[in-house]
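Researcher: Structure prediction, please.
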Amino acid sequence: MTTLSLGAARAGVELRSFWRERDAVVFTFALPAVLLTLLGSLFSGVYEGSTVTSAQYLVPSMIAAGVASTTFVNLGIGIATDRDNGTLKRLRGLPMPPLAYLMGKVLLVLAVTFAEVLLLLAIGMVLFDLPLPASAARWLTLGWVFALGVVACSLMGVAASALPRSARSAAAVLNLPYVVLGFISGIYYTPIGALPDWVIQLGSVFPLKWMAQGFRSAFLPDTVLPQEVVPSWEHGRTALVLAAWCIGGLVLCLMTFGRRSRQTS
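Model: Predicted structure follows.
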């Protein structure tokens, strides 16, 4: 069997295991959805010079947060758990290359992330009247931002899985940077242009801020641009930053995943 077929088979195992853990399924999808519903209900008002409401501005940002949650956090916790309970050690005794195992994990988070995005989008449309992208160009923007964001956050999740020392500490270790990044990236604050300059500069280093900005550019009209950090969607810079994190995440994966697995085998 090829690495690709082994990865697909592993993805099937991962998906079945995920859906059997009903409490994990509920909380995976519920956290971003509940946050969006609560925060969207608290925000009110329409931005000057635009028809966009504060709640509509929040929805694309929360979609970005949902992507980061199902990739970075869940992938990091899942690999740390597999390492701690001996799954990785047992897999090393099988004719399955590490790449096939990682492919299975990434395909799992891709399926879960897609479902999470659909859920958050449905909430935004039903509760806050969020319009769908108005042109083919905006749908294309949504697609490449989603693809680069998923790859970047997934690779960083694989690399970060080396940080927890046990499965019990994995959730705390992975959720802390996720929550901090959410605040400094302007996810829970609208509009992002009103944040202090040092927070904006710090958040601009990480992919979550750019993923949220890219999603806003797909869903929201250009009349809301005065609320951004600069009056431009900066698509070129968004693509460069997300691509750089994809490359950096891959390098970190090569440096940390194999070494940490050998240490615990």
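Model: Residues 54-84 form the longest helix (31 residues).
Researcher: Thanks, that helps.
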